[in-house]
Amino acid sequence: MTPPGKMFVPSLPTLWPGMLLSKPRPGALPPFSSPNVRYFYFARNAVWLTVKMLGLDKGEVLMPSYHHGVEVEALVDAGATPRFYRVGSRWDVDLEDVARRIGPKTKALYLTHYAGFPGPVEEMRKLADQHGLVLIEDCALSLLSSDGSVPLGTTGDVGIYCLYKTLPVPNGGALVVNGPRSYSLPEPPSPPSASTFSHTVSALLQNLELRGGAAGRTLRGFVRTLGHGTVKAASIERVATGTQHFDRKHVDLGMSPLTKRIALAQDLESIVEKRRRNYFYLLGRLRDVVPPLFNQLPPGACPLFFPMVVQEKAEVLARLRAKGIDAIDFWKRFHPACDAGAFPEVAQLRRSIVEIPCHQDLSPEVMADVALVVRDAVRAEKRTKKRAG
């Protein structure tokens, strides 16, 4: 095993050099298998276009109170008004609350599939049909996931995906329109090539550090320092991914050809299998010391992360990151349009959920190291809390 102090476990999968030369495979899962798809730089661009395309502006969209915020910003910028429904302590949608909140101005229901775990899409579809509403499936966190045998994003009127959270690509979001109705969607222009190149090099360097240990870490640090100076000196516009806010000036930005090439070369079924394997490993090694959000992994689910519940989130995150594990502080803020006091279960989720990487780059040996570090961090948190109490 790698000494815990020398670990490097990135939150997202890295780009292996051979992937730049791999041949494309037939896309067996959406959005790659979808006949009516448009690709964008960000998934949030697809949210904005969905509002405009389906005429949801000047109407209300019922959205989950547990949200990132950038999707709400995109919807508001496009002219729609968000209204929020209850989500429980296990990411469970309160369907009765959704039904109660449907009013004369409601035009659409918005369902988020969290971290690869399917939401109640069939029930939401029935509610939407009963009231003549559009159903939007947000699969930004659930690329490659299915609800049993039904791929997520194929039941709603539209499915929205983010590619770079699950695949080692520099950018990418997708909008899939389901059903018989066809929409004429323009092909958005490619992003600045320098920005794509910058993200690609960053992903390659992360792979170097993941595989190269101390030598890889040193080389990555040197190249990053050199690269930052070059980007600044050349005034290169680097359109950052993973940002917290919607920016209208990037709404028409498309996905880079390199992203599509890398994405289509991925073995999607193998990625799902490895992520599920890593999730089950963590579940078996951690469930006795920290409560997982879910005690099982539904059939077809492709987990984005391993979500767990902690009491002192900041302390646990600091301990994990000090050991080289880039754990995620998952969705800690409400959008200002949502009354935090009205959704106490969501407020607690935002205070307590930490997500541990379990992506396809991580071997069983690495996962064993990760499990040991997480166990130590959680036990240290409990000791701190006990002394404070």
From TrEMBL:
Belongs to the DegT/DnrJ/EryC1 family. The keyword Transferase applies. It comes from Myxococcus llanfairpwllgwyngyllgogerychwyrndrobwllllantysiliogogogochensis. Keywords: Aminotransferase, Pyridoxal phosphate, Transferase. Signal peptide: none annotated. This is Aminotransferase DegT. GO terms for molecular function: pyridoxal phosphate binding; transaminase activity. InterPro entries: DegT/StrS_aminotransferase, PyrdxlP-dep_Trfase, PyrdxlP-dep_Trfase_major, PyrdxlP-dep_Trfase_small. SUPFAM superfamilies: PLP-dependent transferases. It comes from the Bacteria. Pfam families: DegT_DnrJ_EryC1. GO terms for biological process: polysaccharide biosynthetic process.
